[in-house]
Design a protein that fits this description.
Two copies of one chain form a homodimer. Helix content of chain A is 47%, strand content 13%. With 387 residues, chain A is an alpha/beta fold. The first copy, chain A, folds into two domains: 170 residues, 3-Layer(aba) Sandwich (Rossmann fold), CATH 3.40.50; 199 residues, Up-down Bundle (Dehydroquinate synthase-like, alpha domain), CATH 1.20.1090.10. In chain A, helix 7 runs antiparallel to helix 8 and helix 12 packs across helix 13. Chain A is globular, with a radius of gyration of 20 Å. At the A-B interface, strand 1, helix 8 and helix 9 of A face strand 1, helix 8 and helix 9 of B.
Chain lengths: 387, 387
Amino acid sequence: MLNFESFNPTKVLFGKEQYSKLTREIKQFTAKNKILIAYGGGSIIRSGLLDKVKSELNDFEIVEFGGIEANPEYDTLMKAVELCRKEQIDFILAVGGGSVIDGIKFVAGAVNYNGEPWDVLIRKDGCVFRSAVAFGTILTLPATGSESNSGAVISNSRLQEKRTMGGPLFFPKFSILDPTLLSTVPPRQVANGIADAYMHTLEQYLTVPTTNYLQEYEAEAVLKTLIKIAPGVIKDPSDYDLAANLYYCANHALNGNLKNGVPTDWSTHMIGHELTALYGIDHARTLAIICPRLYEHTFDRKKEKLERYAKEVWNITGGNAAREAIEKTESFFQSLGIETRLSAYTQDYEKAPQIVKDRFIERNWNYLGENQLITPEDAYEIVRSCF
Amino acid sequence: MLNFESFNPTKVLFGKEQYSKLTREIKQFTAKNKILIAYGGGSIIRSGLLDKVKSELNDFEIVEFGGIEANPEYDTLMKAVELCRKEQIDFILAVGGGSVIDGIKFVAGAVNYNGEPWDVLIRKDGCVFRSAVAFGTILTLPATGSESNSGAVISNSRLQEKRTMGGPLFFPKFSILDPTLLSTVPPRQVANGIADAYMHTLEQYLTVPTTNYLQEYEAEAVLKTLIKIAPGVIKDPSDYDLAANLYYCANHALNGNLKNGVPTDWSTHMIGHELTALYGIDHARTLAIICPRLYEHTFDRKKEKLERYAKEVWNITGGNAAREAIEKTESFFQSLGIETRLSAYTQDYEKAPQIVKDRFIERNWNYLGENQLITPEDAYEIVRSCF
């Protein structure tokens, strides 16, 4: 087992009608009577969630910032930063999925940053967020685990870039997970959420054999649960118990626990982010495109762990189990209605391998994956095999 | 899934040689240059651990309090309370197992309490700890999970009482888990630690069938890991990877995660505590005595979950699986060298059923277990069947 530090101070309020605790929670982090509520498109307005939340917050003056898009945009978020500065906001309530929550993590760090916050995202020397405005979340779409971790991914479509940020300052103070909200989420996003949670787990599990028995069983617990609930939750997102399992799985897939003491991969994500930056393909769908081909490309190195995954998660043994496990994984994504070939999303796919390769070289991302053996040339080959 | 709130702000520093981070961590919680180090018997002195820890703390004046016993005693702990008051301590480093850590939770609460702290433990009207001195821990014996939760059990042998306390104030600020320390733990305590972690998991799992699929798989993950590592870790506690799994299992068994959204039992603990209070039997051993008989006594209500436990954890199916799972559980405890009959520990066992029953009645503990169906009369029958 590798040494690790594990820390997650976010309070999770899980279940039906936890909104009544909002005022109690927020008052722990601000003495002011004014907060910002941030959200994405109009779905939380149409579903009545925004009104419901506001009706619980009579003690506060509410400033609103809507319009945070999927793959939250730097330019959009900088408008929220300006609003926070103007209104002297010291608490933000993010209502939405991973994009809104990720976006608010960036906003929370940028508000008190002197200089151009993009410099922090590109890791320019000496540029870091040194403080963050306190924030809490109400999660609508279960997928990214952002409601219980301190990481975020921010897009800049002008530069066709997607960049990560994070650190201990960026844990939400609290997150409300209400599984009844799943029925307000578009079916496409429910499918994405399942795939995203599944892939987050694989990135921290499908590496090499380890002696981290508990971590391996725990990762398999998430995978088996997602496989078990997926057909039902796709069919009827208003089934409370199934929805609750999805919220809980997505949370556990990336609340930090699965990474404790284990080698992690994340190369599917690193390549996938480029496909979103290039083509605007949903994040989860980029993972479903890359993952099977990446596992094929790294088959010899991952074979032993694939065999364990085959046995424990898919109940497959035998000489071809590792290959079959990759097929099962791809079929699982397809069963969610997710296409696993790049050409299903764009006709402009031919340029992708070279662009991804060039970008990795430019950023000195010379070695990815749990063994640090995936080179920019490998990334080229992997993307090429995804057509 | 039941509604729940989940919160655990303890930072875990896991692995070899994490002591070098002690000063960094402690300085976040005190501006003073004086701290209390609290420990139990002499084993941390003999093993050299105390000297090693002190050598990392050159920035601080060290006040020591040793002699916190297994099942930490109210009278002993009150001496530590007095010492903290006299020395104006605002940070305590607990070095030891669950007893030392539990004891320091009580001390942390009692230092600034006006009145007799025992009143808090017996839940006398209006008596609560309203603040706590900050504390961190270095865990020697993995067992209770106390290093990552906010609960404690305090004994009062004058009254033959064992009482619980806890709450959000009582999370350690950090806990260092160093699996190399397992080889300094007496073999009897290693066995106890395995049994304790196993039983903590069962209390939160072996109840009724639920639709909490992820929680069930996660509980099974801990149980399967403990079964897998137990023979090796008993044989060679210096095997780092096996020891690391034990530390991680004991931590996960009671860091709060397994109870999220599920019904819990805890009746084996409630009865077991009385056997410790009466006879001084090791906590873990009281659980091994009570558990098999309690599951037999509540067999019809637990049968369905026992069948799942049989299948998923012990790979047993068939008409007799539930009974066999109880036998397997008892055999597992015995394989650790733990006797599972009360008469193996005391010849004075005949009085136990009546005393336990009377105490439960006296405290209005009229209904225990996940269904609230275990009455004081049931407790009498269960203890009677343990002879």
